[in-house]
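Board notes (copied after class):
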Amino acid sequence: MLKGFFNVPAPQNETVLNYGPRSVERAALKAELDEARAHQIDIPMYIGGKEVRSGKTAGIHPPHDHQHLLATYHEGDASHVKAAIDAALAAKAGWENLPWEQRAAIFLKAAELLAGPYRAKVNAATMLGQSKNAYQAEIDSACELIDFLRFNVHFMSQIYQQQPPISGKGVWNRVEQRPLEGFVFALTPFNFTAIAGNLPSSAALMGNVVVWKPANTQIYAANVLMQVFREAGVPAGVINLVYVDGPTAGEVIFNHPDFAGIHFTGSTGVFQNIWKTIGNNIHKYKTYPRIVGETGGKDFVLAHPSADADVVNTALLRGSFEYQGQKCSAASRAYIPASLWPAVKEKMQRDMASFKMGPVEDFENFINAVIDEKSFDKLAKYIDDAKADKNVEIVAGGNYDKSKGWFVEPTVIKVNDPYYVTMCEELFGPVLSVYVYEDKDFDKVLDIVDKTSIYALTGAIISQDRYAIAEATHRLRNAAGNFYINDKPTGAVVGQQPFGGARGSGTNDKAGSMINLLRWVSPRTIKETFDPPKDYRYPFLQKEV
């Protein structure tokens, strides 16, 4: 509820530091990396403002150096999930009744801490725990999360200002935005520290209390985020961080009468099972839970015969292979006209030969490791199957090695069948499948692009023909929630391109916009009459004289 309005200036996107040679930020980051590798830490859960250690620990290892032990974390069980829910509900009344500007101040302070004293620490944690290079960590765990925090405060103030335009004579109409009745479950992925921070904090900003379960492979950086939230002043119990397996968390949370919503990023299969469970348990809840999720993608780049080969090449290399293709938005399938393919192929092979792959601590490495052995083995099988198929050509890459880390070489597969398995299924790694079409078949390819995948997250058209751009933009309007023209299909910026897809890619509630925050409030309309009627009789009931 708006208890007083204070002007919240429109924020600016955080400046991305470049980490060039001899820069201040590079020196600070390298020092933090050295410090983190030199000291093994013990990571607790955070429940009701207390550090909780179960005594049952598991190790955290850099994906690019899986023999090195960075940290241990304490695994929880059902009792810890119950304790987190109890702590959240105990904190609820105080938190939701706190004036909105006080909540805003906490998360604005968190943004300043991330922009300043915690910047190198959170970036180093993301680099080591999730195998991101310095630039990928900077745009994620620093800049995007800072933007989420600042822009969400701005959007919150706009939401609270929205009031009925007309009250009528003797009447005052107003709307208050209440937090949801119960607690919110934030289930966050490994690939973006910014998402891991935004999913619990955006719901909390709107007055909700949260139980947060990160992916095990993101716990190292999640621990740093929890330190930031605590230092910023998030009260005990408002955000509770637990490390449990999914079924254990689900069994407790989705059977609890005070479950009010889930904020999710992860696989489509998991999200669909969660939705089904919530539906089956709907009679158990006090309210209809909010279900917000961003899930998988099989994102495309469609090149028109008029496209510039250099633009296509750069969009594919950056869109497919930055962060080893482990982005929901990563370019995973490409459609290239036959007239353009020889030039694009030559440029891709030339540039991919210059890629350096290795540990994140060496800033010359463009490619690092995939997240874990399960991902490595899955990708290796797809590559091996492609090598064994006479209708498939390995254009570049195709090698992998897990002796030191989970390294999969960026790989380009050319297929003869536009519905070959790697054109359809989400691989979530550095593997790009290319289908070369006849120039005259551009119209047919639009239908293929639209129908190939269950997903609809991101996509791009690359063309210098405005008619072709207009046609693709219209025909593919349901194929991507974020659509790019003459650019790679990755890199959505908070406040500029609200992010989310439909179909099998989620509920399209657009993280980084007011749309998402509206999912975490429940409006109440209040009508106050200053001179209420004192007789039930309307004038039409009077007799004519």
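Comment from the instructor: The CA atoms of residues 133 and 362 lie 9 Å apart. Residues 134-161 form the longest helix (28 residues).
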